[in-house]
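Hi all, a correction to my earlier message: I attached the wrong file for Heparinase II/III-family protein. Here's the right sequence:
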Amino acid sequence: MNSQPISIEKRFLETANAFHGNSHPFHPFPKAVDRKAYEGLPAALKELLIQAGEAKLGYEFPVIRATDYMRFKRDGDRAAFEALYFAKRNALNDLIQAECVEHQGRFLDDILNGIYSICEETAWQLPAHNSYIRDTPQLILPDVTRPVMDLFACETGALLACAAYLLEEEFNAVSPFILTCIEDNLKRRILLPYLTAHFWWMGHDDEPMCNWTVWCTQNVLLTTFLMPWSVEMSSRLSSPVRTFCGNAPLFLPENTSDTVVTLQAILHKAAESCDYFLKDYGNDGCCEEGAQYYRHAGLCLYGAMTVLNTVTDGHFDTLFRWDKVKNIASYILNVHVNDKYYFNFADCSPIAGRAGVREYLFGKATGQADLCLFAAKDFQAGQGQLVTDEVNGGNLFYRMQTVFHYEELMKQDTSGILSHRDVYYPSVGLFLVHSDTMDLAVKAGDNADSHNHNDTGSITLYKKGLPILADIGVETYTRKTFSPRRYEIWTMQSGYHNLPTICGTDQKDGVEYRAEKVVTELTGAEPSISMELAAAYPDAGAAVPGLTYSRRVTLKKSSNTVVLEDHTNAQDVILNFITYEKPVILSDGKLSIGEASASFEGADLLAIETLPITDARLKTAWDHDLYRIRLKGNDASFRLTIQ
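and the right structure:
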């Protein structure tokens, strides 16, 4: 996280302020009544979608009880509630897509059961997000008079709006009250809270934002412009914008009537939130939350921009050519390693999900052919995942985007060579370099990233596309994960990264615990990064006055060799290295680690520990246990060479 004073550039708000005129329709894909469009889809794709819907015929949409909601507050478990919550929505998505493709009414009753089940939920926000002020304790039950707009309340709004958009005529053939029910819920739970209350993710002054800002904003925009509103609501949202007051308030007073729901109000607030989101990004476009959260950050920025640009008839088009936006788009290609693997840090998994239609469209919008190639190649490698994909599967809008771009991506010529460039992201301190067989990442920066782990100075290494030195990732989220006790969790601690333990102490979390004197060299045959890490170890600094601990990491491209060199004045140092494959001792100072051989000087082998992978979330990243090499330093200098 950048500790320098943040300048808030208002490009989105200025663009919104300059728009005068009527809104244009947002029709991102055909409605179900457009039979020619659906009949023209590939036969295998149609069969897949119908089969997924058939598996949900007769699905019993679970009732979410008060005790289910209270469990998070009582014992910290969030997985049980979320399993019920997301299963309902995924089932509804499957049924809607099947009905759109088949269009015989076979799935309609189950779809209506799903819609009414969701509309009957007391609240749409997750228990883990049930609070009104950022970083305050969650309330045990929701207040039905004050809806909380969290990530998944907004996702739910977008889902219902998309369902109504796709099946408007089919719903009305059953009863006009279906759309009335959806509209009432969307007005009460999404649009009015959005325009009459302030939630932290909307942005204010220099308060740090994260993926929530654009993720929620995108879904509010989708809710607004996909929903086939009643005549009264439609007239408000299509009324022309003639003047735009740049000094308009961030939000409107509580209890304002629903007449505030206007195009002007929506554009103003959404545009300003995009500016607040972008203020926390460097011009390099690095996502400090990692590759997995890029799908909820950079790609949701793209989603919000797409809606804004469409409903204003291209008024936001120039922002796609802004270097910062282009760099945000290309980040995902730069942190990709090989096949399913990504360089990961913070709460990101090394298996961050396949790229696909959204990355492809972001590449097209920003004019980056290499990003389009990467997305198409990865989409094909994943066999065009539609239903099983964790990120996109739960969002009906993403699913339908994929359906109607499926053939385009599957037919792309992906025979071209995809190269990963060497890059340093100064805004986060992320150093990424490659040779013929080695892919190396080093994390400088500080310990105040969003979804932070204490990992300043850690390295990640792949050989021939497979992990050698690993970043473990994060366990299943619980109440402790986002609490003052976060760093009691082992995966958050520097001792479980590729970092030293100094005088028996690990790194601390906070912006002041950072890498200093960072120097990078990207050109030539031996790219390198060096830094001083003492500031990240305040407890060790108290034990060793004048503590120094420098680290330099070099990739020697000609020999596909990585050299790590540490120098310190501390007497008590244990070096930790996390490996994917079990290390095998070859001789003193020599190990084999999977495809790689490692040698070290200035330390003695203390232990090779097994790190059992038992957590469900970690099991999705690692198919067996991990290992921790512990070396006891015996000299002021340490050198590790991996080939």
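Sorry for the mix-up. Confidence is low (pLDDT under 50) at residues 242-260.
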